[in-house]
Amino acid sequence: MRTSHKLWPRLALASGATVATLALITGCTAGSTTPDSSSAPAETSAGEETTGGSTGGTIRIGFSGPAADHGWLGAINTAAIAEAEKFDDVELIVAEGTNDANLQISQVETFINDGVDAIVLLPTDGAALTDVAIQAMEAGIPVINVDREFSSTFAARTTILGDNYGMGVSAGTYICEQLEGQDDAVVAEIAGIDSLPLTQDRSQGFEDALDDCGLEVSNRVAADFTVQGGEAAASQLLSAAPKIDALWNHDDDQGVGVLAAIDAAGRDEFFMVGGAGSANVMRAIQADDSVLKATVIYPSTQAADGISLARLIVQNEGMEELVENSVPRKIQLFAPVVTKENVEVYLPSAFES
Predict the structure, then answer these.
(1) What pLDDT, on a 0 to 100 scale, did the predictor assign at position 56?
(2) Other beta carbons less than 10 A from residue 47's beta carbon
(3) Which residues contact 23 (CB under 8 A, 6 or more apart)?
(4) The listed CATH number (3.40.50.2300, 3.30.420.40, 3.40.50.300, 3.40.50.11030) that belongs to domain 59-160+302-332
(5) Which GO terms describe its cellular component (predicted)?
(6) Which of 23, 48, 84, 317 has the fewest CB atoms below 10 angstroms from its CB?
(7) Structural domain boundaries of the chain?
(8) Cα–Cα distance for residue pair 39/41, rounded to 1 Å
(9) How far is CA 4 from CA 9, 11, 78, 94, 212, in A?
(10) Contact assessment for residue 303 and residue 120, using Cβ atoms and an 8 Å cutoff
(11) CA nearest 351: which of 256, 281, 260?
(12) Of 142, 151, 157, nearest to 123 (Cα)?
């Protein structure tokens, strides 16, 4: 009998479990935005609580993120815009998505010059955007940092993150549970871009969870988060590994190519776990007619949550379920496993890849 999985509570990964999330105080009903140019940000020093310059009028929020060249990033932008539209008192100013750090810096500088009330920022490069984010904070404009962290705590009022390490732990723990008693099981891994810290964190979490139940990664390749890259990497892996019992693919967008390679090779002796939580993967899990049996969510709601948090911060409000009357400095979202048993809970918020 294997040891219990100390890294991750088994109850949290039970196939029928529903993960509750903290509900945010909305304060207004959904409706159209009514611009009000009279709003102005209050002056604070970096790291201090803003006094909320527009609690009685329209809250102007600037939003900037990378180019939507990936299904998950596209969903980030769409969800942020949809969340802003729920509030009568929010005007969302959306900068064009870009992977150019210098262009994104100029976008934030424009937000500062325009005197927005808050900025929600998913930086193309957290370190490169740190200085301009500090400038915004020093101008009294709270910055909500999404997904990719700045290199200084003074650059953001609140940071909201997914859990890359937790994704690996969730995937590894699920595989451990499915392979209970198979000490010689062959576990394979198709990672994303190996040079990225997020990929390294996912792989480390996966390795740690497998180690906890006496397994290890037998075959590993890296792709590039694209369909083409996933297909090429999977073809390489399948050629090198004549037998596999379980496979974790880090990203559902590249998973489209991974599944194509698996179909082309005629392999079906193993089960596959995806990553990120795309709608097409969840539909495949629901159909239960392929090797794909589960995926681990990396929430595409982070910027949408950032919009709601920005509004609360400007209004000097807190989160309804917390005793503390201010929004926390950091929020990290859970990485649940989606299976056939609970897919209907997560499919409505899944992104298309």
Answers:
(1) 63
(2) 15
(3) 319, 320, 321
(4) 3.40.50.2300
(5) cell envelope
(6) 23
(7) 10-17+163-298+341-349, 59-160+302-332
(8) 7
(9) 9, 12, 40, 47, 8
(10) yes
(11) 281
(12) 151
- Site of tokens 């009028």: 57
Q: What is the rounded CA–CA span in Å between residue 49 and residue 327? A: 10
At position 18, the amino acid (one-letter code) is: T
Q: Which amino acid is at 176?
A: C
pLDDT-flagged residues of the chain (< 50): 1-6, 8-54
* pTM score of the predicted model: 0.80
pLDDT tens digit sequence for 230-261: 999 999 999 999 999 999 999 999 999 999 99
Give the strand pairing for 337-338 and 292-297. Answer: antiparallel
- Identify the pLDDT of residue 69: 82
